[in-house]
Design goal:
149 residues; mainly alpha; elongated; Tubulin gamma complex component 2
């Protein structure tokens, strides 16, 4: 079951990062399986990882507040996640790649949002419409509904 989980997670990560081709998932899966050791959390390592992320963060108070909130809810695997994030703060190349990926996704989302917005005029409720205006409004509504499906 664990091996399947690693395959699934690596493939999902590559898909989310839109990485196609290259070395492929198998290399990363083999690497993860060979270097897999159980994470044993200690109070010291969890605390130092939390401090490192807070120092790296633009809003350390917000991060510490969210961490304490999740810790009070006894969130599963919180400390291993915080440890991983603290290690990511040290890897400048990975950070740069993730920032570039986030920027590209934001630009794509903005482009999609801009292209999906359509403007048309709707007369006020108190005014009466002529047959011609009604027909124009019907055409506009028809083009918007067929364009969005």
């Amino acid at each position: 079951m664990s091996e399947f989980r690693i395959h699934h997670d690596v493939n999902e990560l590559l898909s989310l990062l839109r990485i196609h081709g290259g070395d492929g998932a198998e290399i990363y899966i083999d690497l993860l399986q060979k270097n897999r050791t159980p994470y044993v959390t200690t109070t010291v390592s969890a605390h130092s990882a939390k401090v490192k992320i807070a120092e790296f963060s633009r809003t350390p108070e917000d991060f510490l507040k969210k961490y304490d909130e999740l810790k009070s809810k006894n969130t599963r695997n919180l400390d291993p996640l915080v440890y991983l994030l603290s290690k990511l703060t040290e890897d400048k190349e990975t950070l740069q790649y993730l920032q570039q990926n986030a920027k590209e996704r934001a630009e794509l989302a903005a482009t999609a949002m801009a292209s999906s917005t359509t403007t048309f005029s709707v007369p006020t409720t108190a005014s009466k419409m002529s047959m011609q205006e009604l027909e124009e409004l019907r055409k506009q509504l028809g083009s918007v509904t067929t364009g969005s499906t």
